[in-house]
Amino acid sequence: MSFLPFAHALVSRQDLPVPAWLFAWGASIVLIVSFFALSAGWRTPRFEQAPTRRLGAGLSRALLGLPAQIVCGAIGVFLLGFAIYAGLEGTEAPDRNFALTFLFVTCWLGFPFFSAIFGDIFRPFNPWRSVGRAVGAGFQAIAGQRSGHLAYPEWLGRWPAAIGLLAVVWLEVIYGASGGVAVGLDPHAAGVAALVYSAYTLAMMAAFGVEEWCERGEVFSVYFGMFGRLGIFGSRDGRLERRRPFAAATTWATIPGSAAVVIASIASTSYDGASEGAFKDGIEQVFEWLADTGMNLTTALRLTDTIFMLACFAGVGLVYLLGVRGMRTVPGAPSLAKLRTGFAHTLIPIALAYLVAHYFSLFVFQEQAQFGYLLSDPLGNGHTDLFGTAGSGIDFRLLSANAIWYVQVGALVIGHVIGLMLAHDRALVYWPEYRKATASQYWMLAVMVAFTCFGLYLLSVSNG
Amino acid sequence: MLPLAHVGHYAIWVLYVIPVLIVVGAILRSAIAVRREDREDGKPG
Fold first, then answer.
1. Cα separations (Å) of A205 from A158, A271, A374, A395?
2. Most B-contacting residue of A16, A28, A328, A456 (CB-CB within 10 A), to test interface
3. Nearest CA in chain A to B2
4. What is the DSSP string of A114-138?
């Protein structure tokens, strides 16, 4: 079996029974059938204010109480500190340094994947939130009063998180681009970036308050928390609760800029997938134009990649806005602004589907490294073997090319069907007459089919 | 100029656009039909 190196995936040659494009046709048919099944059998909202079941007080105390908060927070702070230390002091070989795989694979992909199932599991381990809360508690103990904060500008909403999300991906896939390894960023640069981000985040928490900043501006809280809204566990008033899957997503996009966050997520994943495939020729062409102007080659390459990433953001945003604009034509539609924010949460499962489709093989392969040689020799300098696994490797035979493809297709189809369900449910709130609600969702069907076919096209070109 | 050997590679995206065009076409056709019906219903007599 031959393997081709890609920026963020290792894939072997596929041997599919039918051409890849036929899967896009099949996926579109599944979406259309799902759409009509929803129209026929789903005539009242089921996700809005869906019932929740409160879990036992003892379990809630054990998992949400102060001792658990301190332990989880300490683990988060220790792991962040250790990753920064490994980045600054460890080997410069990206694939041998604990920091990169831990930050950009285990955390960056692991938290979305598991939060989408179990709820927001990043929140208790958030190192910056833990430090911010500890400092706040210390201040209160010494000064005898809570620290004052500036009022967060309402119009700013989640835009800092959306921009930060693009910046994190930019750092990883554009600034750190180097083909052939899973994450090509220089570990030292990753360590410095983590330090700078920590200083920035703590300053923002001091200015606007810990919870306020985590809810709106802190990239990782907003990003992982967004996927956590799909999960089945949450908490309210200090009690754990079990909720209907995906139902909590309906209350996520109430803050300005939320749509930008989820669009940034889809766009950055799309860009990463397309940069080595569908966009390759275009990137080379623009790079040559810029290089011909006398620009430094590294700068020209980064500028080209940045232009394509922003174009992805604009393109994904435009498709969504066209869908929303289409809904506006249905009689009884609310304002465009309300539709824009009201349907943003329907893109969350699509963002997750794109993440799974593009990165799940990377996650499976790199986690073998994470819990194998990187755990035993985190600095990658060959001097330590903490758990006796420093000599282990990655078994790339764990997933066949066909298995990867079927997971990718399955993830995209399921993600878009869930997106359709959420959109249909929200439409029933805005148009209580279900015929109008269904008519409004023709446009979201078009959006979902477009994202599905686009996603499969990107994957087929990258895999081909 | 594109090398002929790679024409398939460059043109394959058309096959992925067709389902989107079919859905968008069906939506537009349906929207036009609804508007025509509304107009006709609005006529006196």
1. 14, 31, 32, 42
2. A28
3. A281
4. HHHHHS--SGGG-HHHHHHHHHHHH
Compute the distance between CA of residue A378 and CA of residue A375 in angstroms, rounded to an integer: 5
Q: Are the beta carbons of A456 and B30 separated by less than 8 Å? A: no
- DSSP code per residue over A363-399: HHHHHHHHTTHHHHSTT-SSS--TTS-TT----GGGS
Q: B13: distance to nearest CA of chain A, Å?
A: 7
- With a CB cutoff of 8 Å and minimum separation 6, the contacts of A225 are A115, A120, A122, A123, A214
| pTM, entire model | 0.91
3-state secondary structure of A177: coil
* Residue A24 to residue B23, Cβ atoms within 8 A: no
Report the distance separating Cα A21 and Cα A460, nearest Å: 8
- Joined together, the tokens standing for residue A37 give 């099944």
Angle at A85 between CA A81 and CA A87, to 5 degrees: 115
**Cβ–Cβ contact B18 with A under 8 A:** yes
Residues of B in contact with A278 (CB under 8 A): 13
Q: How much is the ipTM here? A: 0.78
Residue with tokens 């393997």: A3
Candidates B9, B12, B16, partner chain A, best to mutate (most A CBs within 10 A): B16
| Burial readout B17-45 (b: 16 or more C-beta within 10 A, e: otherwise) | eebbeebbeebeeebeeeeeeeeeeeeee
- CB distance A21–B15 less than 8 Å? yes
Radius of gyration of chain A (CA): 23
Q: Tens digit of pLDDT for each residue in A150-194? A: 999 999 999 999 999 999 999 999 988 754 455 668 899 999 999
Q: What is the DSSP string of A301-333?
A: HHHHHHHHHHHHHHHHHHHHHHHHHHHHTSTT-
Each residue of A361-413: pLDDT tens digit? 999 999 999 999 999 999 998 889 999 999 999 999 999 989 999 999 999 99
What's the start-to-end Cα distance of chain B, in Å? 62
Give the 3-state secondary structure of residue A236: strand
Type of residue at A186: D
